[in-house]
Structure formats: structure tokens, C-alpha cells
Amino acid sequence: MSKILTGTVVSNKTPNTIIVDVHKRYQHPRFKKIVNVHKKFKVHVESGTADVGAVVKIQETRPISKDKHFILIKGGSPVNAEVKETAQANTAKKANSSEAKTEVQAKVVVAKTKKIKSDTTKKAKVTKKKAIKKKEVTN
Questions:
Q1: pTM, two decimal places
Q2: Buried b (16+ CB within 10 A) or exposed e, 58-69
Q3: 23-71 pLDDT, tens per residue?
Q4: What pLDDT shows up at residue 99?
Q5: What is the 3-state secondary structure (H, E, C) of the chain?
Q6: CB atoms within 10 A of CB 139
């Protein structure tokens, strides 16, 4: 008998493949603490796709590729519109944060180069003043 698991769709960007996050809770045998475990599975989808945030059922099957050994049985519609919106908002935040990071990094690089240029001009001025003082002392 093959395994049947239930999880939520995390990604549907690749053709004929979705990534499903399966959440499992169990009690640790020795410490008796409830442990939460997440595992992501690549799932083969023959027709159509499943929306991000949808709750789906997947079944274990023969290996389809190196990492894919599950197929989609049931599901594909999102749990509710809020889940889908929050998933899209999170991806947008990640994209914006990476753009913001690159802008900040660019500003830091520009500031460092300006500082280096100003430091070198200050050093040049100081060395010129020292040279002038030496000439005055020797004369």
C-alpha cells in the first residue's frame, strides 16, 4: 500500500510539478514532547496545476524523476483567498526586500568610495603641509 499524505502547495512555478509542504506532529518516544516536522515533496501533476496555498492529497508512486516520487490525487483549489493573498504578499515582500538590500548595498559602496577619495585628498594635503614645514625648517 502506498502512502497518502495531505499538505499545502508551496510552489507551482515549474511545469508539471508542484512542491507540497507536509506538516506532521508526533510525540517524541523518550521525552514525550510534541514535535512538529515539515517536509517538502516534489509532486507530479499531469493536467493543470494547483494554486499556492491549496490543501492537496498526494500519493506515493514509482520514481518519476530523481526527486519526484509522488503524484497529485485530490485538491488544487486554495483554502481561501486570504491564504493566497498572504502568499503573494510574502513573495512580494521578499522581492522588495532584496531590491532594497541591493539599493542599500549600492549606497554603502558609493559612500565608501567617497570616503576613500576624501581620505586620500586629506592625506595628500597633510603630506604637502609636512613637506612645506620641512623646507621651512631646513632653510
A1: 0.54
A2: beeeeeeeeeeb
A3: 999 999 999 999 999 999 999 998 877 899 999 999 999 999 999 999 9
A4: 63
A5: CCCEEEEEEEECCCCCEEEEEEEEEEECCCCCCEEEEEEEEEEECCCCCCCCCEEEEEEECCCCCCCCCEEEEEEEEECCHHHHHHHHHHHHHHHHHHHHHHHHHHHHHHHHHHHHHHHHHHHHHHHHHHHHHHHHHHC
A6: 5
